[in-house]
Design a protein that fits this description.
about 270 residues; alpha/beta; nine-stranded mixed beta sheet; globular; Hydroxymethylpyrimidine/phosphomethylpyrimidine kinase
Length: about 270
């Protein structure tokens, strides 16, 4: 029968070097046994040294992609990636509300893993107001969690408080990613808060490497893929954490500087 195979959607920009964005999302979904589809929001010209140019798709074209996919496929989960301005964010929010795309995993690409702001303040506020209330899951990195929760995070208790603040903003389930910018640390600990109030910590060894492009995309895409397969939220979080760690821990030699992670490495990849 039509549409029985698990299908997931990434709403993201294309990264020309394949290390992050839509390419990382689709590769993750593929290796986890899910058919991935995309709504292309932007195109980026970049390599392992950095980004040289970027171009947003017209919002009417973005809206048409949503309508075209909804008319044919049974998308069981969706995720967002980098959404660069207020108009684009509003377009995505409007079409997510209008369509049937399953639970929404919001990767709030606001601040880099090194702490650099990516969005102008107006776009940041639009994301807070328009997309976070639609999120079934939100997956901020350490710096994004501080920005969104409007607080410094220095202790485990702070991470717990930040997660509850994000839930109060409308996100049903929260995964706050722990700091991984300290070369002296031994592990990376993330805090998960579920819609029913259940919470737990996820831990993996810290890996000292510059091959970490696309880690946030991969984690959120893995959660999306597992939800599309029908797994529960806690299992989706745990599988995504382990998958991402194994992809970081066994790097591939691609590029001269900041390379991609290895989506073929995870040994727990499953097709159920």
């Amino acid at each position: 029968m039509a549409n029985e195979f698990p299908q997931a959607l990434t709403i993201a920009g294309a990264d020309s070097d394949g290390s992050a964005g839509m390419e990382a999302d689709l590769t993750t979904m593929f290796t986890l046994g899910v058919h991935g589809m995309c709504v292309l929001t932007a195109a980026v010209s970049g390599n392992s040294y950095g980004i040289d140019a970027a171009h947003n798709m017209p919002t009417d074209f973005i809206a048409q992609q949503f309508k075209t996919l909804a008319a044919d496929f049974k998308i069981r989960a969706a995720k967002t990636g980098m959404l660069s301005d207020s108009e684009l964010i509003r377009t995505v929010a409007t079409n997510v509300k209008a369509g049937t795309f399953g639970p929404l995993v919001l990767d709030p690409v606001i601040i880099t893993k090194h702490g650099a702001m990516l969005l102008e303040e107006s776009a940041y506020e639009t994301l807070r107001q328009e997309l976070i209330p639609l999120a079934t899951v939100i997956t901020p990195n350490f710096f994004e969690a501080q920005k969104l929760a409007e607080m410094d995070i220095t202790t485990d208790a702070d991470m717990v408080t930040a997660a509850h603040k994000l839930q109060d903003m409308g996100a049903k389930n929260v995964l706050v990613k722990g700091a991984h910018h300290d070369g002296d640390q031994d592990e990376v600990r993330d805090f998960a808060l579920l819609a029913d109030g259940t919470s737990f910590w996820l831990s993996a060894p810290y890996v000292a490497t510059e091959h970490i492009n696309g880690t946030g995309d991969t984690l959120s895409a893995a959660i999306t893929a597992e939800l599309a397969k029908g797994n529960g939220m806690a299992d989706a979080f745990r599988i995504a954490k382990q998958y991402t760690y194994e992809a970081i821990a066994d790097p591939i030699a691609v590029g001269h500087k900041f390379g991609p992670i290895n989506h073929w490495a995870p040994k727990m990849t499953r097709l159920k």
